Amino acid sequence: MKNLSFLTLILLLISCNKSKDDPGTEGYLFPLNRLEISYVDTNGMDLLKQGNPNAFNKNTIKVYHLVNGEKKFDHLYFSCDKALCTLRIYPIGISYLELNSQITDTIISEIYRTQDNKMFRKIWYNEELLLEAEYGTEFYFTIVK
After folding, report:
1. Is the Cβ–Cβ distance between 98 and 56 less than 8 Å?
2. Which has the closest alpha carbon to 125: 144, 101, 102, 109?
3. Is the residue at 128 inside a domain?
4. Strand partners, 112
5. Most C-beta atoms within 10 A of its C-beta, which of 26, 106, 114, 131?
6. Residue 127: domain span
């Protein structure tokens, strides 16, 4: 019985050791690869709230992901349950956010993949580093247009 307990303890310690390929919990961390964005004008007016002057038409906003050199359409989600309306997307590598026929923004995401999850490490919005993830970093942004 003593040997069995000792063997169990050794196996438990070995299984809890971090793999040399596991980067740990620092330097990335979002449990999901979801990004929420609000848009405001220079006066702070919500550009996703329908009915506001100069608001983007939510029915014409599109998101595409670059997959094997081709732009693939994806679904996006709107929510107006916060102070500002948000647009939720799930960027993959290079994504294009077509706000209207004249404005297309680029989102580049560096994603860390585990066996069970995908997590952001870095996000660029129109070539500007918007996020270098650390534990507890939010994945909600307000962009001024």
Report:
1. no
2. 109
3. yes
4. 119
5. 131
6. 28-144
Residues listed for the chain = 145
End-to-end CA distance of the chain, in Å?
A: 69
Token duo for residue 120: 């952001």
Cα angle 4, 6, 10 (rounded to 5 degrees) comes to: 115
Distant-in-sequence, close-in-space partners of 51: CB < 8 Å, separation ≥ 6: none
Domain count along the chain: 1
Q: Are 41 and 145 in contact (CB under 8 A)?
A: yes
Place of tokens 């070539």: 127
Write down the pLDDT at residue 136: 52
Find the helix or strand (DSSP H, E) in which 68 lies: none
* pTM of the predicted model as reported, rounded to 2 decimal places: 0.71
Residue 22 placed within a domain: no
Give a yes or no: residue 16 inside a domain. no
Does the residue 17 lie in any domain?
Answer: no
CB-count exposure of residue 48 (10 Å: 0-12, 13-18, 19+) = buried
Spans in the chain with pLDDT lower than 70: 1-33, 117-118, 134-138
